[in-house]
Design brief:
Elements: H1 3-27, H2 76-81, H3 101-116, E1 134-135, E2 141-145, H4 150-155, H5 162-173, E3 182-185, H6 199-216, E4 220-224, H7 226-233, H8 239-242, E5 247-249, E6 253-258, H9 261-266, H10 271-284, H11 289-299
Parallel strand pairs: 2-3, 2-4, 4-6
Antiparallel strand pairs: 1-3, 5-6
Helix pairs in contact: 3-6, 10-11
The structure holds iron/sulfur cluster.
């Protein structure tokens, strides 16, 4: 290749990368580009985040801070430039993923069978059925929620109650058939009285979810409620703050947090925000959200 051709190729690649970045920022809801001279603000935090890690806050509570006159705190700017040691990241389990779709689907079925006999945490004592997941092993879109409820425990299938019916309508409004997507939970057994799973229960069950996701290799993950994000990314931030902003699972799969359908049954006015989040997901999947907006409005969801 001649020198001018090399230059043209390089410029084309730079342009492609710049376009991809701008599209990514636009998809994430940032309406203007960050300026290097501006101080960072909460609204301009990086939109594409690595999985956050849990670490104690550095700021002492007001009750524990020394009196200002005795020990003034160092200027904030000095603290901002002090390099911090890297916080420990949770170890990524090594997962053997078969090469072919058929072999991955077979391993998924095998894993469901393993889960059905699991006694790794106390939740097995009160379950009627394990709830592994439902949907296509070839799904591009995976929904991750917290855990089974009473109906799911009775039937062994995720999202079969009223919240499940609402989720099905949301999926249909996106233009998908119910079984074109995949739906699963952080824990596969119902926590008693539908309480949130305890950290040790989540830790025991998460390897199943990580393997499910490795086998499915979706293009996008949607977390329904905060527990899914906590399980996958280790973030304990509230769902109200997180929803609508893209995260990354394992540094490569876009993850969109949004409200849980059960919450929407109690707070139907929040459906608009969920639909905004799902429109971002549709764009990420190469679908046309505008074409579906009318349909969503007609469905009232
Ligand atoms: S919740 Fe998960 S780890 Fe606990 S018993 Fe059920 S399948 Fe096993």
């Amino acid at each position: 290749m001649s020198a001018p051709d090399d230059l043209r190729s390089e410029l084309a690649e730079l342009a492609r990368q710049a376009r991809a970045w701008v599209e990514w920022v636009a998809d994430s809801g940032v309406d203007e580009l960050p300026r290097a001279t501006e101080a960072p603000s909460a609204a301009r935090q990086p939109v594409v985040e690595q999985p956050p890690v849990t670490a104690p806050s550095e700021d002492a509570s007001p009750a524990t801070q020394p009196p200002v006159a005795v020990a003034p705190r160092p200027p904030k700017q000095a603290r901002a430039v002090t390099p911090k040691p890297a916080a420990p990241r949770r170890a990524a389990p090594s997962i053997d993923v078969p090469d072919t779709p058929a072999a991955r689907a077979a391993r998924l079925a095998e894993l469901a069978d393993e889960v059905s006999g699991c006694t790794k945490c106390g939740l097995h004592e009160t379950r009627q059925n394990t709830v592994f997941g439902r949907g296509s092993p070839a799904a591009k879109l995976v929904f991750v929620s917290e855990g089974p409820g009473a109906n799911e425990d009775a039937q062994g299938v995720p999202f079969v109650g009223k919240a499940g019916q609402l989720l099905d309508r949301m999926i249909a409004a996106m233009g998908y058939q119910r079984d074109e997507v995949y739906i699963c939970n952080v824990v596969k057994c119902r926590p008693p009285r539908n309480r949130k799973p305890e950290p040790d229960e989540m830790a025991a069950c998460l390897p199943y979810l990580h393997e499910q996701l490795a086998l499915l290799e979706p293009q996008v993950i949607v977390c329904l409620g905060a527990t899914g994000v906590e399980g996958l990314l280790g973030s304990s931030m509230g769902i109200t703050r997180m929803r609508g902003t893209w995260k990354l699972y394992r540094g490569r799969i876009p993850l969109m947090p949004t409200f849980h359908p059960a919450y929407l049954l109690r707070q139907p006015e929040k459906k608009r925000e969920v639909w905004d989040d799902l429109q971002q997901v549709m764009k990420r999947l190469g679908m046309d959200p505008k074409a579906k907006s009318q349909r969503s409005g007609e469905d009232g969801d």
